[in-house]
Design goal:
Length: 661
């Protein structure tokens, strides 16, 4: 009876607001449900109360008096800025809610020592790390240098290998472990990264001065010496004019590499950085041997003290530039902001442990219902995607078409980005050798050491079971940007669509949504990420994450080029995102909105829900603004013009349209 009363009240509110009925009519909405009562924590499943409250939220953001056919973003998101601050989007707000839950968890554990979580060592280590971060005062960057292990001698490669253990490897000679395909990592050796340079700040200079007991040139003199060094390194590392696009990465055995580059003891350097003695037959990747040879020869003759200072300075700059290092923007200790900044830092640096805590304390209870819904929608989309490809409207050759179909069929989803089918014991073993104390600087370096030591172990292991677990998700490194944690994305090397926790909540997703709301965002989001698998960036990766020549074949197809050129209407277009927007939206519509009656009764709500992802979204280096993306994608869909009765020639119902796949 309580639910029925609330349902009636909300319907009365919708009707009483006049313009809202016109904007989002609810009389004939499809209220079917993908869940049964037994699969939800509430009764009944897919309650009208939940859905109608969400519709009310959508109406707060709308300006229904505007013409949707002229500017749908203004129509659907026109009031967003009056409700939320500048720079806030649906995804950033979702991420902030995740941060707040972590803060509440750690503050509770600090004040309730008998909480059940204290019985698990993982929580104890997370809590000590959090407490050390909260206790930070004025930055003392010298502390990072003091924590580095002592190495005998003063050879540039030895110090570089030590810094590499903490994930820094961008200058002189780059040695890193990188994922190679869906089931393999490899050691990669590359020349100095001439795209990145040092900006010697006063704080870094002061850390060097204190660490060397004042035995330094002036800031100005040292900066000039570093610039001269960088200029020399760039001249050696930068490819000759016209050759920058040539493929120079090749596979070598360690013995072959030693023969090609004899001026460096590669066995010793790899042991120092990666913690193992590799046999001469061990295979690795190396790029541009002539540049490496020239760099190593120069570095062996250069001023060892200058090379050491430069390495320390670059390492400190790297640490300060890691996403959400609380030292980069220190705040008063024990303030709410400091707690949030510490949690944001921990989510980057302690990715797997933090995800485990969130799963156990918050998300686990809704996983079963979510996976039932998401995997069901994903299966529908995959079936429709394969059907569309088999139509072969671009006229692809049979071999290429079969390869793309295999890639679509091999797509997987990981909700929450955790390893599949593992126990709590797995996580306890993962953190067994992770050392945490009371000093933030030591804790930060130890967390980096723990991550990169594990990466090196994963690269060389022959344990098939271990590989299967660790390649079932994307084990994020500390350098990844916020948008990877906040929004779903396609992971090309694993053919996995990652659905982060931030997405798995209102206003974008709820397992109990009615179909128009569920498909309005979820199907479009999944469709977008699925289409990334064959966009202009990622099409060359096959179902196993191996690089192929698919794009070389596609550019010989006149129909493909015509479709690309239609979308690529200016030099500022993020083409791969536009392909995913257009084709993903088409895929979602073909999956859910094929029935004209469904469009008539549910179309407006479907498209307004779709808009929520874009409300407030600013442009970045990968994406256009939310308004441009939303309007452009929907203008290519005749179904949108049909639902909103847009006259031909209006911005949202153009005379000519682009299509793809």
């Amino acid at each position: 009876m309580r639910h029925l009363w609330a349902h009636c009240l909300l319907l009365l509110l919708l009707v009483s607001q006049g313009q809202g009925v016109k904007a989002l009519p609810t009389a004939h909405l499809n209220q079917s449900c993908r869940l049964t009562a037994a699969e939800t924590a509430t009764e009944p499943a897919c309650s009208a109360e939940l859905n109608l409250r969400h519709i009310q939220l959508l109406k707060r953001y709308m300006r229904p008096e505007l013409d949707a056919c002229q500017d749908f973003y203004a129509y659907a998101c026109g009031n967003w800025r009056s409700v939320h601050k500048m720079g806030e989007s649906a995804m950033s707000l979702s991420g902030a809610r995740i941060d707040q839950r972590y803060v509440e968890l750690f503050e509770r554990l600090l004040h309730v020592p008998r909480s059940t979580e204290h019985s698990l060592p993982l929580y104890g280590k997370l809590l000590r790390y959090y407490h050390s971060c909260r206790a930070l005062g004025k930055p003392r960057l010298r502390r990072y240098l003091e924590q580095l292990p002592h190495i005998g001698g003063n050879h540039w490669a030895d110090l570089l290998a030590v810094l590499g253990r903490y994930g820094y490897h961008e200058h002189y000679v780059k040695i890193e472990v990188s994922q190679h395909n869906a089931s393999q990592h490899m050691i990669v050796v590359m020349p100095h990264n001439y795209y990145l340079n040092l900006s010697l700040s006063g704080s870094i200079y002061n850390a060097l001065r204190r660490h060397t007991h004042g035995q330094l040139p002036s800031l100005k003199q040292l900066s000039e010496q570093f610039k001269q060094l960088e200029q020399t390194l760039q001249e050696m590392a930068q490819p000759p004019n016209g050759s920058s696009d040539e493929e120079t990465v090749s596979t070598y055995t360690l013995e072959q590499l030693q023969q090609e580059l004899p001026d460096l003891n590669w066995t010793h350097v790899l042991h120092l950085q990666l913690g193992a003695i590799y046999p001469g037959s061990y295979q690795l990747l190396a790029d541009d041997l002539p540049a490496l040879r020239q760099l190593i020869s120069y570095l062996n003759r250069a001023d060892a003290r200058l090379l050491q200072l430069y390495s320390w300075a670059r390492f400190l700059q790297h640490l300060m530039q890691l996403p959400h290092n609380p030292l980069s923007n220190p705040q008063p200790s024990f303030s709410a902001g400091s707690a949030t900044s510490c949690v944001q830092h921990m989510r980057k640096t302690l990715y797997l442990a933090m995800n485990f805590a969130y799963e156990r304390n918050y998300y686990g209870k809704q996983r079963q219902a979510d996976e039932h819904v998401i995997f069901g929608v994903f299966a529908e989309l995959k079936q429709q995607f394969a059907q569309q490809l088999r139509l072969n409207v671009l006229g692809l050759n049979a071999t290429l078409l079969d390869a793309l179909l295999d890639k679509v069929q091999g797509l997987r989803i990981n909700v929450g980005n955790l390893p599949r089918n593992v126990s709590d014991q797995f996580y306890e073993e993962c953190v067994q050798h992770w050392r945490v104390g009371n000093d933030f600087y030591e804790n930060h370096l130890n967390s980096l050491l723990h991550y990169y030591d594990h990466l090196a172990e994963l690269e060389r292991t022959e344990d098939a079971a271990m590989r299967q677990v660790w390649f079932s998700f994307n084990h994020h490194g500390p350098e990844l940007l916020d948008n990877i944690d906040a929004t779903p994305y396609f992971y090309c090397l694993g053919s996995i669509i990652i659905m982060p926790y931030a997405y798995m909540q209102l206003p974008l997703y709820e397992s109990q949504f009615w179909p128009a709301l569920l498909y309005g965002d979820l199907a479009n989001t999944l469709g977008h990420e699925m289409l990334h698998s064959i966009d202009t960036y990622f099409v060359d990766y096959d179902a196993q994450g191996e690089m192929r020549d698919y794009s070389d074949q596609l550019v010989l197809n006149k129909n493909y080029l015509k479709a690309v050129n239609c979308l690529n209407d200016s030099e500022h277009v993020m083409l791969n995102e536009r392909i995913a927007d257009i084709s993903g939206t088409r895929l979602a519509l073909n999956t859910y909105m094929k029935d004209p009656l469904e469009r008539r009764h549910n179309g407006r709500l479907y498209f307004v829900q779709f808009a929520q992802f874009f409300c407030g979204e600013e442009a970045d280096i990968y994406h256009d603004t939310g308004s441009k993306r939303l309007n452009y994608a929907l203008a290519q869909m005749p179904e949108f013009a049909e639902v909103f009765n847009c006259a031909p020639g209006t911005p949202m119902n153009p005379v000519s349209r682009c299509s793809f796949w």
